[in-house]
From TrEMBL:
The keyword Hydrolase applies. GO terms for molecular function: beta-glucosidase activity. It comes from Phytophthora nicotianae. Belongs to the glycosyl hydrolase 1 family. Pfam families: Glyco_hydro_1. The lineage of its organism: Eukaryota, Sar, Stramenopiles, Oomycota, Peronosporomycetes. Residues 1-22 form the signal peptide. This is Beta-galactosidase.
Amino acid sequence: MQLATRVLQFLGFAACAVRVSADSRCFTEDFLFGSATASYQVEGAVKEGGRTPSIWDEYCRTQPGLKCANVADDFYHRYKDDVKLMVETGLQSFRFSVSWSRVMNWDAQTSRMRPNPEGISFYHSLIDELSSNGIVPILTIYHWDLPIELHTQLREEGWLGSEIIDHYVEYATLLFNEYGNKVNYWTTFNEPLSFVAGGYALGMGAPGYTGSLTQAYTAAHNVLLSHAHAVKKFRELKTTNAIGDKARIGIVLNADYAYPLDESDPDDVEAAARKMEFDVGWFLSPIVTGDYPPIMRKIVGDRLPQFYGDQSELVKGSYDLFMLNSYAARQVTSCNSKTSNKDCGTLSAGFEQDRAVDDSHIIPGTRQRSTKAQKDPHCAFFTAYPPGYLETIKWLHKHDTSADILLTENGWCGDDEIDNPDQLWYFQAYLEQVHKAITEEHIPVIGYTAWSFLDNYEWGSYESRFGLYYVNYTSESGSPDFYQPKPSDLARIPRPSAKWFQKVATSKCLNADETSATTTKTHESGGHSHHVWRWLFGIVAIAAVGFVA
């Protein structure tokens, strides 16, 4: 019955895609079609312009098998040409992050970060270039690249200590004052689940800690308080005209929808709900209600920090819109169920054992990794089940039906090829779900952001390729000692999805013929594998670290 239900659901989706040709599948004129990158993943120039090291510059050098991002896509030097490509691709928005250690440097005498004018100037130039070409900048304040001194020089390391809150608010305030009248969309953090659970629970990303019963919860608490204080400062500055009247701020959360493995089994239903609360509610519930989800309070107990005094009211309502990254969907059961592929005892102590789920089950009808990427551990989790995208959007929407939703990342993990039909199919199929969310569910989705604009550094690897544009990396890419690419290196080559995206972005309408032509193809799985650390929190064994975001 479960298999039949899933197959029928998928066939229903495919049939809907075929019917597109008979209907008008258009978005409103103000809907934002965009793409995204992140500072450490594309900029390179790690020793230029006054930039100092981040925790990822250290982490990639100390972990066996990881590559570094000294050069990455060399976006720091090539951004003007890349903006021209954005215009050619029809982008109306571009999401990027600021490198904290590029705009601020550590001052050993004051034990504070101080502004770096050259780094600040770079982002002024980037924002101005985007705006002058009619592209809306979406600025991410923190995308995982913590300045190394904030990890090594404070009383407690990085996000594990409350000292970090003041440092973060000083940094955010600098950006608000510098770019406040140039940027209308702000996000405080990208995917706190990923860098908190990955870095402080699972040992799958900087700083690489695992085994603690409390570290992830402590780090998450400090992230939430940093976010809330920054939003408070943002709103104060709006009253002084330092920030434009139309500017809005939020926090980017990541969610991949959890279906019960057996919808008739109450334990599986509860496991799926528990996964959503631990993965998303952990950060969503505090900003909506002022506290963590009740299920987390029940399971984690006194290991989960409290919001004291006015902290609950500070955190509650600290968003102007919802922002969502989502890529995949899975079936879920409890780790102690008879159908589980994981023994609870094999899960990492703390967050993973508290969540206690097995989310490795593939939904019937799911499209697996690209054929040539079957052996790439980085792409294992990035499977495609389009109906799950709509369910994720609906799940988020029900927490505040008045909040606009900006879709800030969505994309396909491909391989080292330019013509990637799976990627094209993915964007077509998932944008169908976005259109459904707006027209059938009446959810106020205001924009869609493809991850990523360019192939880029995926947190330890260059093998996972998400770009609308293929990047021609060299054998030296990723070397910890490589800093100067040749002008002929790193050529950008448009994939078919870039050309299709341009048509959709400029017409604001989906092309039914192209969509229906590719909806029925599926791939066989090569078995269960590992995944990029930023989403695969259910799989502990991992061959290499990576992420999109």
